[in-house]
Amino acid sequence: VAKGASNVTFTNLPYGNYAIAAINDINSDGQLNKNAFGLHSEGFGFSNNPPLRYGPASFADSQFFLSGTKTVVQIQMRYL
């Protein structure tokens, strides 16, 4: 990721409720890996940047309404 930021564009999505989960798959294996202590060893984040408890954020906590062609969603990646 250049300069700590990346952009992704989704096109032709119908209006509605969406949520985004993102991972920084450092080793490109398609998974969010954990270390020997069970903590995530790669970055992850969710739309709306909800506070995390146990497990991933829920759809309800992460959802946003797509209502236009230029909706911008910023996700704060978390690294443990």
Mean pLDDT equals 90
Strand order of the largest sheet: 1-4
Uncertain regions spanning at least 5 consecutive residues: none
The secondary structure category is mainly beta
Query: Radius of gyration from the CA trace?
Result: 14 Å
The number of strands is 4
Could you say which overall geometry the principal axes of the C-alpha atoms support?
Answer: globular
Helical content band: under 10%
Major sheet description: 2 strands, antiparallel
Order of helices and strands: EEEHE
Proportion of residues in β-strands: 15-25%
Number of helical stretches of at least 4 residues = 1
The end-to-end distance, rounded to whole angstroms, is 18 Å
What can you see in these coordinates?
The chain has 1 helix and 4 strands. The longest helix is centred in the last third of the chain and has 4 residues. It is globular, with a radius of gyration of 14 Å. The mean pLDDT is 90.
Relevant terms:
single chain; 80 residues; mainly beta; two-stranded antiparallel ribbon; 1 helix; 5% helix; 15% strand
Helix and strand topology:
Elements: E1 16-18, E2 21-23, E3 44-46, H1 59-62, E4 64-66
Antiparallel strand pairs: 1-4, 2-3
Summary?
By secondary structure, the chain is mainly beta.
